Amino acid sequence: KAGVTQTPRYLIKTRGQQVTLSCSPISGHRSVSWYQQTPGQGLQFLFEYFSETQRNKGNFPGRFSGRQFSNSRSEMNVSTLELGDSALYLCASGSGGPAYEQYFGPGTRLTVT
Amino acid sequence: KNEVEQSPQNLTAQEGEFITINCSYSVGISALHWLQQHPGGGIVSLFMLSSGKKKHGRLIATINIQEKHSSLHITASHPRDSAVYICAAGSQGNLIFGKGTKLSVKP
Description:
heterodimer; A: mainly beta; seven-stranded mixed beta sheet; about 55% strand; B: globular
């Protein structure tokens, strides 16, 4: 099976712009979760989608949003970018049960200048 | 106090040594995950535990639900084990992560 893919892998944006990141899960997986990793805060949970519905949400401002399509592919959007949004954004897919193994993508490294 | 605490933060070992990384959590969980992250960012899931003990090759993970504590053991460590090991606790994809343990194994 192909692994989790994320596009783009690298992105440079300017403060105030918006960005959309994409995640394609492993075939058959119904859950996609998004995480932000920074040197200062480490890994933090953004949100989780299951069957096109946001099931869980982390403690991030409303500028961070996402969605999931019927084929389980997911996108996350960050509007009005701030310098502090520079991070590695990781998505992970899984079966979506109460506890399931997470399969991580390679991440998108976003730099905001 | 962080909800998921790992120790030690950094660990240097000689090849062949037995290694233990500890993780304590204060949140309710459905499962505890152990992850490995190599330089460059890629994260691999090593274990998902909700009780007891699991073993994959030279890696062993244990969890004590009553004490809210988990350990990751590496037997006969090898330089290729050098990576950051991260524990994460929670339910479904809603995970709280430890700060990670940076392991360096010297030949």
